[in-house]
Amino acid sequence: RLPRERITYTFVFFLTMLGAWQLYDVCVRAAITEEAAVRYRALLRVWQFFAIASALHFSMMLAELERIVSHPVTLIALYVPCLLFEASYSAGLIREQVEHVPVFGWIADSRELGPVFRAFSSLFSLEAGLTAVVFGGNGWATRGQGDRHRAARVMAVGVSIPVVFWLFTEMVFPMVLGWRQWPLTSTFLSAFTLATAYSLARYDLFRVNTLAAAQAVLQTISDALFVVHHSERIRYANPFAAQPFGPVEGTPIAGLFPDDASRAAFVAGPMRRALSGEQVLGAEVTLRDHGGGEVRAQVSLGPLYTATVGASVVLVVHAVGPLVAIQR
User: Fold this and answer.
1) Is there a contact between 19 and 82 (Cβ–Cβ < 8 Å)?
2) Average pLDDT score, the chain
3) Is the pTM of this model over 0.70?
């Protein structure tokens, strides 16, 4: 599968586990009797462990640590402790008591659950902390990379804040300070994660982030290549494009033309044909380089459509000015 698909599927798995954790939290806290709360915990608690493990899994995929996270040893280290933790409950190694408190409803008293619980809780706390570190590191490592950095920054804020909240309210409070836990993590994390997912989809950041997997190919193209949105804004420019045209990613396409009449003719002709689904090959245009000089060129255009952004065109510029000069 393509890297984009693996990241997407990992994110969907994380959201599924998060939804199951939210269901577990609601069912336990809203239970009518203590017996019902205990039964709900026994039935659904394993999903909260998988939510933590899958969050770290997704963060490593997003940070392009796929060689590490795809190794069988890494996958075993991530997910087997979830099953062992649940097995410890089932074997009676962890005996918990639930209590009903105002506002929160039925919650487990995690202050007196013994060394086995503390050992597993420390492991999951470490995983949660690593998740925040990986997201933050990915945001730092992608500085200056446009949409990819924006995607990393959104993910770092959207997931790391609830993770830190969980560490304090459900681990530090009961296990270090001896206070009763605040069981708000699943709701808090769900709200932040769904808001993050909406932001990534709304601005097409999740899809653009995975463009890194194809950049090795795009960087070998010795022609200027652009992805131009139907609103006439340049959404992507390959490295070669910066040599004649300068840094144009994110700017209107008008900056590529010497005057507005040339731009209008291009938009009404080749670009409109490409937006309608036609492949346009060898159209002659006059462009403007970053120094203000004119560049005679041939361009090829093809349609590109994404569900979240809509219609765009791929524009490849073949500079022919030097060839025309030789022929003359």
Assistant:
1) no
2) 76
3) no
